[in-house]
Write a structure and sequence with these properties.
The chain is α/β, with parallel strands linked by helices. It is built from 8 helices and 8 strands, in the order E-H-E-H-E-H-E-H-E-E-H-E-H-E-H-H. It has an 8-stranded parallel sheet. Bound molecules: D-xylitol-5-phosphate and zinc ion.
Amino acid sequence: MSQIIIAPSVLASDFSRLADETMAVDRAGADWIHLDVMDGHFVPNITFGPVVVEKLRPCTKKVFDCHLMIEPADPFLEEFAKAGADIITVHAEACKHLDRSLQVIRNLGKKAGVALNPSTSETVLEYVMDRLDLVVVMSVNPGFGGQAFIPAVIDKVARVKAMIGDRPIDIQVDGGVDPKTAPLVAAAGANSLVAGSAVFRGGNEEGYRKNIADIRAAAEGAIG
Ligand code: DX5
Ligand code: ZN
């Protein structure tokens, strides 16, 4: 069993063949499927909503890791749960009542995640630690794939790791993850890595398999 969870972001896939691309990364070794939901309001880009998640659900048994970059998030949590999300991540910056949003997600029977923009302090996690299953440390400003990794998040990952202690909470890094940056964040304590462009480059399943294996090997090499 690999210690590192690789979550390819389908944002970097060919959207005209979204189902095929999802099945291809599933076969190519993805652990989770990372689904980037954007509203053109919280972030300057628009992707897809719960209807697309629902249509993709029969394509794979892998964990659906839904990253909601939407504000407000609360009115849509139930729809994403019904559509087949396994993990629902909201942004701390987009939730006025973060504690309540996390309670709603767990009450829907789903795992609850909080994402932090690069400029957001990890201290916002302090009083919601016991309601959390996943912390997503953004290593780019959300909205687009293919951006450069922001190195300051490496220390942030280490601080989040220290705050979590022995609680069963995963730490995910999202943005600019590739075989060069993966070892840096894995060494700091991240165990779940989102990768969009670094997985989907090449455009075919054989390439995806190698890309996923390369990121995994680089990350695992850093934690021994
Ligand atoms: C950014 C998204 C990321 C994105 C990562 O807003 O949340 O999940 O797809 O893409 P890469 O790996 O290309 O930085
Ligand atoms: Zn994401």
